[in-house]
Amino acid sequence: MDNNTLMLFAGIGALLALASLIGFVLKRRSGDAENPVIDNLNARINAWWVMVAVIGIAFWLGHTAVVILFYLVSFFALREFMTLAPTRRSDYPALAAAFYFVLPMQYLLVGIGWYGLFAIFIPVYIFLLLPILASLGGDTTRYLERAAKVQWGLMIAVFCVSHVPALLTLEIAGFEGRNLLLIAWLVMVVQLSDVLQYVCGKLAGKRKIAPNLSPSKTVEGFVGGIALATLIGAALFWITPFTFWQAALIALALNLLGFFGGLVMSAIKRDRGVKDWGHMIEGHGGMLDRLDSVCFAAPIFFHTLRYWWG
């Protein structure tokens, strides 16, 4: 990692330390009384310490470690998605192909930087292959729903997420050797948008923006969180190849995509009758609960960079 990356992680550590201090003070003031909001806040902060540490170690180890990290992220996300989706015995060939062939192959293509294939491998070749595998068992019960479920899970949990480590494959003039900062900027801006929408909603939220999909999201939280995260993204332009205003516009677009991605994933959860995708990350739910916004933002960010800067 270069000095900019180290400075960035030092700043993140300072912010988390401040957040931990605030959480500690709030907990002390509440005394022995249970306060679900404060407990959830502290659980989220503790989980963020772990996630930042894991990402920091992967960054320190280099390109291969980052690809492996996101491979594991995709694996757990895909498992959560498939666990909540209905399956039948005849789906096993398609599921086996998804976990043991498509997932590792996609990240192998990303790892070696074969853009021409990893960009179309899942949306073209696998899109056609999986329905064939699902049809081999001869089971037509809810066939279209079952085939779409596997394809949708691969698109969200594997194809979209794989565009995060794919940022390492971009060649940007004047930005050589600093692509890790692009990953850090993307994840930080989109995740801060989620956090700030949550905080602004708790502090000033009154009007629900999508009560049937996500009752906790409010108009005030949406506007405040996205505005603040966009300002932070613009302020961090120095770690990107963008100017201040370019960083602001891109951060705004990514935050909007992240918000609507969260609504889409919430709609799927409501359809399945669950609140969270899982319980892997304390205070956050499952892996997909933390990835919903990144899933929708990462491919757009990657292709925008590749087209205009790559």
UniProtKB/TrEMBL annotation:
GO biological-process terms attached to the record: peptidoglycan-based cell wall biogenesis
GO MF term set: nucleotidyltransferase activity
Residue stretches spanning the membrane: 47-78, 90-109, 115-138, 150-168, 180-200, 221-239, 245-268
Source superkingdom: Bacteria
GO cellular component: plasma membrane
Pfam families: CTP_transf_1
Keyword entries, A-Z: Membrane, Nucleotidyltransferase, Transferase, Transmembrane, Transmembrane helix
Protein name: Phosphatidate cytidylyltransferase
Species this protein is from: Stutzerimonas nitrititolerans
High-level lineage: Bacteria, Pseudomonadati, Pseudomonadota, Gammaproteobacteria, Pseudomonadales
